[in-house]
């Protein structure tokens, strides 16, 4: 073609575009792509927003469904209970867990947990890259928050939709809760195989302890298990659990949380191949408090877990030398507050032959001689006797009742102190006769002690002083707490918190009488190989060798022990001094004895028999027993006279005159009654006025401060 020739029309040959035009075209394409991306993003955002709005409110019920737990006074676990669905879900917070375990957990599961907002983009990118390289899911990229979301709303599917839901819920959790709260949720919800949920339940099941102090190996195992709890259960798949633990330990070493030597030692530590039982201390009390407040999830008791465990062990040890049907109950009480520090309801909760499910501290049993100290205390309190008063220990008859001593021998004349220390029956009955059995029982009942009398009825007789009634170990121990407190009775308290509206103490006897008894019991001969003079105690043996008792106290604590059969069967040789007393002294040895002496009241009389006031030197029921009683004239109702007919209208304008009431003798205050109903409160004056409601026969009575009374009958007209 010639040089100047022109290309033919329609040729495909084109000239290159200028740079400016090319840039413009590229910009236009980018604008289209950006617009398309923005539209897609907007559509995605709108779709995500619609998806989020379609989700129901986050269900947190799984977090609140926890096991009921019973704790001791310091928060130690006494007994947990299964949830309604049969799972162990012990409540726990991050404060209750070993800090090293928490560091391991974050290093292995979510190292940016403290900084991300629910989703970790770097973790998700890492998980995606691993999936592309290996052609399978190597790690999920889930944060601890996303795992909490999955545990709150468990689903079987594992796809992008499930991951999206978890991510959305994770952001929601981060907005609603702080990092500590989210971590607490994980610690409570994480599965550990079988019916174990939460790190606390797992720590007890696999290591038999709280997760507060964990070894490196223990912490690593607890980190590894939730990823695949059923295939890594150490009690079923020990080798799989070992390999999973090793992977955690390798990560922990790289993160610098544990040294190489610590990791090496942890690798050699044995894997637990069996689950351990959960604590079951004081099961009877635990069941009682849960039954009283079934909706309450945490019960804090006054018990001391260490002492409870020790005394339960003591009961088991001592039962080995007894018949299989014989059980042991022990109660330890703080004298200052009435708080129960240990309550052993039986030897073995699961032993059917011992009726282990029964709380034998609440069983009504015959106390034998264990009630004698209270006969003496009331006799001392009422001026009937003194510890050095001489009593007769000789054959005696009280109508048809003929008491005998345990050894069927007699000591002759003995002091009240010696009679109580030797637990002589005849002197105790003599004192009870002077005191009156009805009066004795009334004082105990007024102090809040429940007494059960035989079903055959009739008025209480002198046999009540030697065990002819029913009482529980709880009530008997509480009565001895009253002696240790100088005669003040407190209710027993099983919960750590004091109940609202606590009643003030009730006085059983005055401090002097209580000290007399405590000082006397301190000198009681101890069991074989025991140190004397360290605790004040008394034993008891019921009729037919069915119950053996020993109750003792020092300044700080009171402990009661009962031994016998739950079915009330006889046990040959079951004697309080031989069987129950050694258990009592061993219990005090485990608790620790308070060496402080009992405080002597300032008005206590410390004297020998010959230096006592004459009425207190010997027990004589035909004369008053105190100087005050001798000096005080007997109570008399001076006016109106017995059988009088009184016209009230004679001295009044409206025909409704008042009746003057007068007493002589006796000791104030005075209370007046008409037909058995009080018409005045206690008055220091010996005179009172009463407005009769009408005419007719009436019975007027007056009671003085000592309990003496006088009654007359009159007719008002």
What does this structure look like?
With 717 residues, this protein is α+β, with helices and mostly antiparallel strands. The chain folds into 5 domains: 24-54; 61-268, Orthogonal Bundle (Penicillin binding protein transpeptidase fold), CATH 1.10.3810; 285-344, no CATH class; 368-591, 3-Layer(aba) Sandwich (Beta-lactamase), CATH 3.40.710.10; 632-716, Immunoglobulin-like (Sandwich). The chain is 36% helix and 13% strand. It has 22 helices and 20 strands. The strands form 6 sheets. Strands 5-4-12-11-10 form a 5-stranded antiparallel beta sheet, sandwiched between helices. The protein has a 5-stranded mixed beta sheet with strand order 14-20-19-16-17, with no helix packed on it. β4 and β5 form a beta hairpin. α3 packs across α9.
Q: Short description, anyone?
A:
This protein is an alpha+beta fold. It contains 22 helices and 20 strands.
Topology:
Layout: H1 19-54, H2 61-64, E1 69-71, E2 77-80, H3 99-109, H4 121-134, H5 144-152, H6 160-176, H7 179-189, H8 199-207, H9 216-224, H10 238-254, H11 260-268, H12 283-292, E3 298-300, H13 305-319, E4 326-334, E5 340-344, H14 372-381, E6 390-393, E7 412-415, H15 416-421, H16 425-435, H17 437-446, H18 473-484, E8 488-489, E9 506-507, H19 511-522, E10 536-541, E11 547-553, E12 557-565, H20 576-591, H21 614-617, H22 627-631, E13 636-639, E14 645-646, E15 659-664, E16 671-674, E17 677-678, E18 687-690, E19 696-703, E20 709-716
Parallel strand pairs: 1-3, 14-20
Antiparallel strand pairs: 1-2, 4-5, 4-12, 6-7, 8-9, 10-11, 11-12, 13-15, 15-18, 16-17, 16-19, 19-20
Helix pairs in contact: 3-9, 5-6, 5-7, 9-10, 10-11, 13-20, 14-16, 14-19
């Amino acid at each position: 073609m010639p040089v100047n020739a022109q290309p033919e029309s329609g040729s495909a040959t084109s000239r290159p575009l200028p740079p400016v035009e090319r840039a413009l075209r590229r910009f236009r394409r980018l604008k289209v792509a950006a617009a398309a991306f923005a539209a897609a993003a907007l559509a995605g955002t709108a779709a995500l927003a619609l998806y989020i709005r379609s989700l129901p409110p986050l269900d947190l019920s799984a977090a609140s469904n926890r096991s009921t737990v019973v704790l001791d006074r310091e928060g130690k676990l006494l007994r947990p209970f299964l949830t309604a669905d049969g799972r162990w879900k012990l409540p726990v917070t991050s404060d209750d867990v070993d800090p090293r375990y928490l560091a391991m957990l974050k290093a292995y599961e979510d190292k940016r947990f403290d900084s991300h907002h629910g989703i970790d983009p770097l973790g998700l990118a890492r998980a995606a890259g691993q999936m592309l390289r290996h052609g399978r899911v190597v790690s999920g990229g889930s944060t601890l928050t996303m795992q909490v979301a999955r545990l709150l709303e468990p689903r079987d599917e594992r796809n992008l939709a499930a991951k999206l839901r978890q991510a959305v819920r994770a952001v929601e959790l981060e907005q609603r809760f702080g990092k500590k709260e989210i971590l607490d949720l994980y610690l409570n919800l994480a599965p550990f195989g079988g019916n174990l949920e939460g790190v606390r339940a797992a720590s007890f099941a696999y290591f038999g302890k709280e997760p507060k102090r964990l070894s490196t190996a223990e912490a690593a195992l607890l980190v590894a298990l939730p990823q695949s709890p059923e295939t890594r259960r150490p009690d079923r798949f020990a080798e799989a659990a070992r390999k999973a633990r090793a992977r955690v330990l390798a990560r922990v070493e790289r993160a610098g949380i544990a040294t190489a030597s610590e990791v090496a030692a942890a690798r050699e530590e044995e894997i637990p191949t069996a689950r351990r039982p959960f604590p079951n201390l004081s099961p009877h009390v635990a069941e009682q408090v849960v039954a009283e407040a079934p909706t309450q999830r945490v019960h804090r008791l006054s018990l001391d877990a260490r002492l409870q465990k020790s005394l339960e062990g003591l009961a088991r040890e001592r039962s080995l030398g007894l018949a299989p049907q014989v059980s042991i109950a022990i109660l330890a009480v703080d004298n200052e507050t009435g708080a129960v520090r240990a309550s052993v309801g039986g030897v073995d909760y699961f032993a059917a032959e011992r009726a282990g499910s029964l709380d034998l501290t609440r069983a009504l049993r015959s106390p034998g001689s264990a009630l004698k100290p209270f006969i003496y205390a009331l006799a001392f309190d009422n001026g009937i006797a003194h510890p050095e008063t001489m009593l007769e220990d000789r054959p005696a008859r009280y109508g048809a009742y003929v008491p005998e001593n345990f050894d069927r021998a007699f000591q002759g004349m003995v002091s009240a102190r010696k009679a109580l220390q030797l637990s002589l029956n005849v002197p105790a009955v003599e004192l009870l006769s002077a005191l009156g059995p009805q009066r004795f029982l009334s004082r105990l009942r007024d102090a809040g002690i429940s007494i059960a009398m035989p079903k055959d009825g009739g008025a209480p007789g002198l046999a009540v002083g030697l065990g002819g009634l029913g009482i529980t170990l709880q009530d008997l121990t509480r009565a001895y707490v009253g002696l240790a407190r100088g005669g003040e009775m407190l209710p027993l308290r099983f919960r750590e918190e004091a109940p609202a509206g606590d009643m003030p103490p009730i006085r059983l006897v005055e401090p002097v009488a209580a000290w007399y008894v405590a000082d006397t019991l301190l000198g009681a001969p101890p069991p074989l190989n025991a140190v004397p003079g360290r605790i004040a105690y008394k034993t008891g043996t019921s009729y037919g060798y069915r119950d053996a008792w020993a109750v003792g106290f020092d300044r700080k604590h009171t402990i009661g022990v009962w031994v016998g059969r739950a079915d009330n069967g006889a046990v040959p040789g079951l004697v309080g001094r031989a069987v129950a007393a050694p258990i009592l002294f061993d219990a005090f040895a485990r608790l620790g004895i308070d060496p402080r002496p009992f405080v002597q009241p300032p008005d206590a009389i410390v004297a020998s028999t010959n230096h006592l006031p004459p009425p207190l030197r010997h027990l004589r029921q035909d004369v008053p027993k105190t100087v005050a009683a001798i000096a005080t004239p007997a109570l008399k109702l001076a006016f109106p006279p017995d059988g009088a007919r009184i016209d009230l209208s004679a001295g009044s304008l409206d025909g409704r005159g008042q009746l003057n009431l007068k007493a002589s003798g006796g000791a104030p205050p005075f209370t007046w009654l008409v037909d058995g109903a009080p018409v005045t409160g206690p008055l220091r004056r010996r005179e009172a006025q009463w407005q009769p409601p009408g005419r007719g026969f009436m019975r007027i009575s007056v009671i003085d401060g000592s309990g003496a009374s006088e009654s007359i009958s009159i007719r008002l007209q």
